[in-house]
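Encode chain A's predicted structure.
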Amino acid sequence: MGNTQGTATAGTSRPTEGAAPGATMMPLAAVPDVPGFRQRLGRRLAAIDWSRIWMGAIGIVTLVVLWWIAALVIGDDVILPSPLRTMDVMIRYLSKPYPSQGETLVGNTLISLARILVGFTWGALAGIFLGALMASVRPVRLIVDPLIELGRPLPPLAFIPLLIVWFGIGELPKIILIGVGVIPVMVVSVVAALDAVPEEYVEAALSLGATRSYALLHVRIRAALPAVITGLRLSMGLSWTSIVAVEMIAATGGLGYVILEASNYLITPLIFSGILLIAVVALFLDGLLRLLRRLVAPMG
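Encoded structure for chain A:
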C-alpha cells in the first residue's frame, strides 16, 4: 500500500497519509483549521470569574424581587409600578412615539446616545491631550492646574443657563456641556496616571535612543493606560448625568425629555422605562470601555 496524499478542496474529504483507499474521512470544513484554537478558548473560559458573574446576577434578581414586593405592598402604579407593568409600558413605547408628535423610546435613546458619544469624545480627547501636556511640561502644569482645580468642583449643570443664552437650545450647548464635565475628570486622571509611571521606564527608553515625545507616547502613556481608561469610565457616567439633566431643561427629544414629559402626566411606568434604558445603555458603554482596557492594557 503506497503512501499517497490526496488533493482536497474545502468541504471535501481526503484520506490521511497511509489511509486505505475508499476509507471515509471527516470533511475538512468540520474541523477548525486554527492552530491552538481550543487551547486559547479554554484559557479564556478558565480566566472568567464566574463567581463574580453569579454574584452580580444574584444582586440584580434580589433588587427586582424587592421592587416587585414593594410595588405589591403599595398597590399604586403612579407611586411605584411593578417590574411587569414597567416592562409592558417599555415594550409598547419601543414602537409607539411619546409624545405623539415625538420619537419612540428607541429613537429617543439613539438621540441621547449620539449626544453622549460626540460630547464624550471631544471632552475625553481634549482632557487626555491637556493632561499629557501638563504631565510633560512643568510651566503648562503650573498655569493650568489652578484653573482645573477651580473648575472641577463646579457642577456642569451650573453652566446650562449660560450655554442656552450663548448657543440657544440646539445640539451645540448639550455637546459642549458634556465635554465641559468630562475634561476636568480626564485631566486629573491622566496627570495622576502619568505621574505614577516610574521614571526608570522613561530613562530606559531615552538610553535606547528614544526621543522625549516618543517616550511619552509609547512608554509613559502606554504604562498609564489602565488608569486612563478608568478615568474614561468615570467620565462616561458623568456624561449621562449631564445629558439627562440638560434634556429635561432644553430639549425636544432624548431620554431625559421623555422622563420629564412622562412625569408631567404621572406616567410613572414610562419614567422607570427611561431610567432602565439609561442604565442598560450606560452599562453597555462601560462594558466596551472594560473590553478596551483588556485589549490595550491586558497586563494592567
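The first helix runs from residue 37 to 47.
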